[in-house]
Amino acid sequence: MNRYGGGMPEAPGSLTSLRSRNRLLVVETVQRRGRISRVGIARATGLSRTTVSSLVADLLAEGVLTETADGAEHRASPGGGRPATPLTLNPEGGGVLGVHLRHAGIRVLFADLSGGVLGERYQELDVDHRPDDALAYVADTALDLVAAVGHDAGRVFGMGIAVSAPMQSQSRTLRTSSVLAGWTGVDIAARLRERVGLPVHVGNDANLGALAEWTFGAGQGADDLIYVMLSDGVGAGLILGGELYEGATGSAGELGHIPVLDGGYVCRCGNRGCLETVVGLRALTSAFTHTRGPDTTIADVVALLAADDPGARRVTTDAGRMVGRALVGICAMLEPRRVVIGGEVAAVGRPLLEGVRDMLTRQLPPPIGQEVTVTAGRLGDRAEALGAIALATQSTSAHLLAR
């Protein structure tokens, strides 16, 4: 069984099973790196060059991978051997859908198997309290998006869903949660599978944001990282040893519901002073309402920072320090190479990152504090939906390659 729950039909100890696992390992490595040579795959996976060449030949013949003629790797080796031609997932091999069910809106992406976005829709909606409307919008929009792009519906292999709530790690269903109380008992995968006729794979949005930044964005090349999602809610996703880590029950990374302020505002989870009530999207913009009015947006805050407004700089730096305070213990225990800050709030940029770095540098033991880097995510507000794309693509690959 792969880490996302896709089963291999062969006997676990058989040569066929081993080859299937190695095929999937090659495909996942190509997906994470985007473009990589056969030699690069061998180095990254530990497989022999002969094994990699054999697997790649099969995957090229099946149309799963394709060779590209450009790129820095397409050059003769120093000994005059065959050029190290980069390999990518074949964009024409099919498509997948990725959905982010945010608290206050829904993003739907349609992408090819290499992660290239072919179409996108976004709709503001009270997702927390309107599950029926939310799922109806996802199903209708997904089908419309595929049709609008003009893609062959028969080559759409699956759908990934990023949900703003903890997930059961084995069943991939929502855990009972006060955060999405209206969704209790809703089988998201089954409901959507019935309406769109595709395999549906569900994951926590911060976890999938981590998967996306590790696969496509700022986390590439760092197999130990923490992704912090600062948006309507606040969450974290962990990549440890090149694997998405979800914890014993699937609830690892609930950073937003760690109390950081005694006597603070009541959080959606029922506790007081949670990180989300201090640095979430609403909390950050509300800090400006007494001077800028109740309709202040994150774009307004970004504009104030661009104008070097001292109040905006203070608020966002303090928010970063509060995030850093919540991360100190986690970083001390796990020693990640990289902390990636994503979500809508990350658009405020440098003062936020400086606040996080400042707190980690001052409070972590020197060897750890000097090694961990803090960087902004590259994928913006698409990250969680792109993570859903990566989840669906990997689950699709596991299914197709095991046949």
TrEMBL record:
Q: Which spans are transmembrane here?
A: none
UniProt cross-references to InterPro entries, sorted A to Z: ATPase_NBD, ROK, ROK_cs, WH-like_DNA-bd_sf, WH_DNA-bd_sf
Against Gene3D superfamilies, the record matches this protein to: 3.30.420.40, Winged helix-like DNA-binding domain superfamily/Winged helix DNA-binding domain
**In which domain of life is the source organism classified?**
Bacteria
User: Pfam families annotated for this entry?
Assistant: HTH_24, ROK
Which SUPFAM superfamilies does this one have?
Answer: Actin-like ATPase domain (SSF53067), Winged helix' DNA-binding domain (SSF46785)
Q: Would you identify the family this protein belongs to, as annotated?
A: Belongs to the ROK (NagC/XylR) family.
The record's listing under PANTHER family reads:
GLUCOKINASE, ROK (REPRESSOR, ORF, KINASE) FAMILY
What is the protein's given name?
ROK family transcriptional regulator
